[in-house]
Amino acid sequence: MPAAALKPKPLPTQSTARRAVQLDLPYAPVLKSPLPAGRPREWYISHNRRLKAMRLAIALLDSGVFLPGQARNETIRDAARLIGVHPPSDTTCHMVRALMKYSR
Question: Which of 20, 23, 33, 83 could form a disulfide with 64 if both were Cys (CB 3.0 to 4.6 A apart)?
């Protein structure tokens, strides 16, 4: 018997599954470390906005939304509710779509 026949078949990933693979819940965020002190307030706001946009983009990609055109504000806010973060602003929703566009 060939060695390839003895290997177990891997579980389908999002890219090989016939339908969307559900998010693994419950979502457990990584441990947070304190941000560096002494920066302007605008830096902290934009930093946290970028982190939130990345989390939302990953959640959307995991749920089967691959194109920025599919990610309307309502879809992004539903993903935020699903992973347990505050609803994003219109600016953050725009940033999520931009991240999805540049990841291709």
Answer: 20
